Each structure stands twice: as C-alpha cells, then as structure tokens.
Amino acid sequence: MTAYQWLGERAPTLLRPAILLLLSAYHFIMTILEVVFVERRPFALFNLTQLRYKSFARVWNNNGEMMSAEMPGPLFQLLSTCKGVVLDIGPGSGEILPRFNPNLISAMYGAEPAVDLHSGLRRRAQETGFGAKYHALLCGAEPESLIPALHKSGILDVSGKGGLASEGIFDEICCVRVLCGVPHPQQTITGLYNLLKPGGRMVVCEHVANPWRTEGRVVARFMQLVYTLLGWPFFMGGCELQRHTWDYLRDAGKWDKFDLKYYGPQDCIPFVVGELIKKSVSLDKSYAEAVQK
Ligand SMILES: C[S@@+](CC[C@H](N)C(=O)[O-])C[C@H]1O[C@@H](n2cnc3c(N)ncnc32)[C@H](O)[C@@H]1O
C-alpha cells in the first residue's frame, strides 16, 4: 500500500477517535461552566466521578442517537430475539431500545449510573412499548452497586446472604458499548455471569484492545495508546480503549456457547460482537429419573 493510499484508506479510521475526544473535552468544559455558573454548585466539582458521568451524559444526549444508527455485526438481530427477564447494562438514554421486541420480554431492567440520562431512558421505554415492564435502575454494573439496586427493586433477595447474589435471575444480559468503562472488569463481568440463569444468554457488543498479534494492526494498537495518554478515559466517562474484554468474558465462568467475532479488527476501535450461553445445569441421570417419577 502506498503512503497516499494509506492516508486515504486507513488514516480516517485511525483519526476518527480524535474527533470524539475533542468533542468530549468540549463537553467536559461546558459541564464545568454549567455546574459553576448555571447550577451554582462549585463544590460539585470536587465529585469527579459524578462530574464525569454528567459530562458523558452531555456527550451522549447530543450524539448518542447518531452514534447508534449503525452498529457492527449481527447486534440488531441478536437484540431483536432477547426474551424473558432481561438486564441491559448501561442503556444510556435508550438509543438501542427500539431494537428489542417488547412482546418477547416479560421484564427489562436497565442499570444506568448517569442520572442525567434517566429521563430520556424512561421516555424511550414508553415510546417503544415497554411501559411498566421497564425498570430504570440508578446503579452501575459493578456488584457493589448493582446487587443492592436489584434487591431494592424486588427482583433479587439477598437478605441474610451478606449482600451476595449466587443464583441466576436473568434470561438475558445485554452488554452494548459499556464493559469498556465498568470498574474492576473481571469481577464485574463474573458478577454478571452469576446473575444469568443456567442456559441464559449474554449478548455482547464491545470495543476492545486491537488484536495486533493476530488479525489486528500494530499501528492501530499504538494509536489506542496515544488516545489513552491524551485523556480518552478521563473525558469519555471512564471508557478504556485497551480493554481485553474477550478474555474477561471467557474467564467469567463456564459457557455452553462462546460465539464472539471481531468487527473492524484493523481499526482503532475494533468491536467484538456475539452471544454467549451460560452452561446449563446438567442433571445427574438418576436424579432426573427420580424427578420425573
Ligand atoms: C457508550 S454508552 C452506551 C449506551 C448504550 N448501551 C448503547 O449502546 O446505546 C455507555 C453507557 O454506559 C454507562 N456506564 C458508565 N459506567 C457504567 C457502569 N459502571 N455500569 C453500567 N453502566 C455504565 C454510561 O453512563 C453510558 O450510558
């Protein structure tokens, strides 16, 4: 490939994150100005976590819809078949809600820690026909935040269990563009695995570290490092470009099906998309016969 061809073909995908980074830095500054001069809450600047959620909510409220019109791989098809009791991790303001079929879903829980996205989320849940079946939870995916919120909502009883959830309660868990930003990812993803019923499905669409050793590109992997050093996680609400989410998912527990594929593996923001089925409980033959009698 000539340098000219490279500039025309590969450079745009490598430089696209720079636009998003600049946009996020702009919204971060606007959030600070809003908190100080409009809301008149200068002390809120000391709560950096909330400030970053607020700033990311600005980015998402302004651009989320446009950034959700097209998604990699079979994601929309996978979402359209979700059924039963579903947990959607980090639904934002519900940009991908129209991709689900509410007739197949008996209850849906959205774990969204950014309070500024909740009004949009509730509005979209109504517009898309979920009505009272939708439960917006103000919490993150990390067990210390999610488990108490599920307990409070009445779907999970952890009283007397030291706040731990060991049983599976969800038929499906959807992780779309969110695991890149959850704290202590291995523990958080294992916590989600535990909340899946045996035989339950996890639908995944996540951007990950560029797989430069196999089908990726070293220059794209290098650019991920550059954007990280320029402040990507800070301005993007904790999102990490260099996460090995594939490995965290594989190591979360036993799966009957682990079907993930790379989309855009040579890009600076490559995705893994697919479905994972949690191992079913295989009944001992004599026990199964006794149950049948
Ligand atoms: C890039 S947006 C994706 C929104 C939605 N899943 C979609 O794809 O349209 C990431 C979302 O994850 C949320 N988020 C950030 N940290 C989180 C955490 N620890 N647990 C759950 N969600 C989180 C953000 O507030 C934001 O709404």
SSE blueprint:
Elements: H1 3-9, H2 11-38, H3 48-63, H4 75-80, E1 84-89, E2 105-111, H5 118-127, E3 134-137, H6 143-153, E4 170-176, H7 185-195, E5 196-207, H8 218-229, H9 232-235, H10 245-250, E6 255-263, E7 271-278, H11 285-292
The protein binds S-adenosylmethionine.
Residues 53, 56, 60, 68, 89-92, 95-96, 111-114, 117, 140-142, 176-178, 181-182, 237-238 line the site of S-adenosylmethionine (SAM).
Using the 3D structure, state the CATH architecture of the largest domain.
3-Layer(aba) Sandwich
Bound molecules: S-adenosylmethionine
Helix and strand content put the structural class at alpha/beta
CATH superfamily of the largest domain: Vaccinia Virus protein VP39
Query: If strands are numbered along the chain, what order do they take across the biggest sheet?
Result: 3-2-1-4-5-7-6
CATH fold annotation of the largest domain: Rossmann fold
> How large, in whole angstroms, is the Cα Rg?
20 Å
In one word, what is the shape?
A: globular
Instruction: Tell me the number of strands.
Output: 7
The H/E string reads: HHHHEEHEHEHEHHHEEH
CATH secondary-structure class of the largest domain: Alpha Beta
Total discrete domains = 2
**What is the count of DSSP helices, taking H or I runs of 4+ residues?**
11
Give the overall pLDDT as a whole number.
91
Residue fraction in strands: 15-25%
Instruction: Outline the biggest β-sheet.
Output: 7 strands, mixed
Low-confidence stretches: none
